[in-house]
């Protein structure tokens, strides 16, 4: 959310290609609230029981790292693999 995202993603079996702009102008506490809401409400059947909610400190620690949208794309791919593995191992 801080750096945006660009590239092809797959959601629920559908493929999307586009651009999500950076939301770095939003305060860390608000970003954490938005992220946690989206994760819990849109993914409740696949969120592992041990999921730890994001905090303002998590977003603050990510600011200023000079990441690009393509870097976010790569991170998203890795996270997808982790969620799939956790789901297959007994997540909700």
What would your notes on this structure say?
With 92 residues, this protein is α+β, with helices and mostly antiparallel strands. The protein has a single domain (5-88), classed as Cytochrome c-like domain (Cytochrome Bc1 Complex, Chain D, domain 2, Orthogonal Bundle), CATH 1.10.760.10. It has helices at 28-42, 56-62, 69-88; strands spanning 5-11, 14-20. Strands 1-2 form a two-stranded antiparallel ribbon. β1 (5-11) and β2 form a beta hairpin. α1 crosses α2. The radius of gyration is 14 Å and the shape is globular. The protein starts with a strand and ends with a helix. 4% of the residues are buried. The mean pLDDT is 84. GO terms for molecular function: electron transfer activity; heme binding.
Write the layout of secondary structure elements.
Elements: E1 5-11, E2 14-20, H1 28-42, H2 56-62, H3 69-88
Antiparallel strand pairs: 1-2
Helix pairs in contact: 1-2
What percentage of residues falls in helices of 4 or more residues?
Answer: 40-55%
What class do helices, strands and sheet pairing give? alpha+beta
Question: Which assembly state applies to the chains in this document?
Answer: single chain
Strand and helix order: EEHHH
- Per DSSP, the total helix count is 3
| End-to-end gap | 25 Å
- Which fold name fills CATH's third level, the topology? Cytochrome Bc1 Complex, Chain D, domain 2
Brief synopsis:
With 92 residues, the chain is of the alpha+beta class. The protein has helices at residues 28-42, 56-62, 69-88, and strands at residues 5-11, 14-20.
């Amino acid at each position: 959310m801080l750096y945006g995202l660009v590239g092809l993603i797959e959601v629920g079996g559908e493929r999307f290609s586009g651009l999500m702009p950076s939301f770095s102008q939003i305060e860390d506490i608000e970003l954490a609230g938005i992220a946690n809401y989206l994760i819990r409400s849109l993914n409740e059947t696949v969120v592992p029981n041990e999921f730890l909610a994001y905090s303002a400190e998590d977003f603050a620690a990510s600011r200023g790292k000079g990441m690009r949208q393509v870097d976010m794309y790569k991170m998203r791919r890795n996270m997808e693999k982790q969620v799939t593995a956790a789901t297959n191992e007994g997540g909700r």
